[in-house]
Amino acid sequence: MKKFSVVIAEPSESIRRQLQELLKSHPRFEALTLAFDLQEAKDICDSMQADVLFISKNMLQQSTLANTQANLPFHTLTVCMSDSIDYAAQAFEHDAIDYLVHPISPERFNKCISKLSARLGTFNLEPLQQMQGLIKTMQFATQAKKVDPLIIKESGRIRIVEHDSIMWVGGAGNYVELHLIDEDRPILYRETLTEMANKLADFGFVRIHRSIIVKKHFISELKPTENGDYLVTLKNGTPLNFSRRYKQTMSEIF
């Protein structure tokens, strides 16, 4: 079942917590991240292609809602929130999908989610996807392949990770651990190792173990072990196991 991504732009911590709790009853709607000002909300919705933006009246002036709507991705639906109904008419005039008044009851929130579900279910993204595919094909025909960075959600922030900064990747169930240059601790990214291996195969990464892919550029040494496997040492001194099951990738490394 498709999930819908949600951005919450609300300065009040108590209201943010309430929205996050209310969303837990609606697993199809996943809170991506928080935004703490109007520009940040726009940037996040654009970079993450968010489906829904819950935004407080405190972050808007009546004259700026139209501009906010115009600068959001075409399919991001806006839900305005306030502690009074005074702004409701302007919100609906500028195509807000709903208007919530604090305190928000579970019953009222459920109605809002029903509206969002109905509207989101009507979008047909196929024509846009076809057009985007055509544009990419034209770009690739005239210039070198462009590698989009990984957009990674962390607590309170969004990280942009370039592929060139990844030394190796370890599998962790439905997540992978990205081990980056000059960083001691790995960061989690929601993707299986197989999906990540396919994504990075064209950029110098090879699979050396059922739970490890590594960028060839960072390998400095291979040593055979007594059981027929190899010990791989990276340029920063990190040791990794190279399983004999993946010996066919040896030629790719050299």
Q: Would you write up a description of this structure?
A:
This protein has 254 residues and is an alpha/beta fold. It folds into 2 domains: 4-120, Rossmann fold (3-Layer(aba) Sandwich), CATH 3.40.50; 150-253, OB fold (Dihydrolipoamide Acetyltransferase, E2P) (Beta Barrel). It contains 8 helices and 15 strands. It has helices spanning 13-23, 38-48, 65-71, 88-93, 106-120, 126-142, 193-200, 250-253, and strands spanning 4-9, 29-35, 52-56, 77-82, 98-101, 150-154, 157-161, 166-172, 175-180, 187-189, 205-209, 212-215, 219-224, 230-234, 239-242. The protein has a 5-stranded parallel β-sheet with strand order 2-1-3-4-5, with helices on both faces. The radius of gyration is 23 Å and the shape is elongated. It starts with a strand and ends with a helix. The model is unreliable at 141-145 (pLDDT under 50).
CATH superfamily of the largest domain: Response regulator
The major pleated sheet works out as: 5 strands, parallel
Distance between the termini: 43 Å
The SSE order reads EHEHEHEHEHHEEEEEHEEEEEH
Structural class: alpha/beta
CATH architecture annotation name of the largest domain: 3-Layer(aba) Sandwich
How much is the average pLDDT? 81
Number of domains: 2
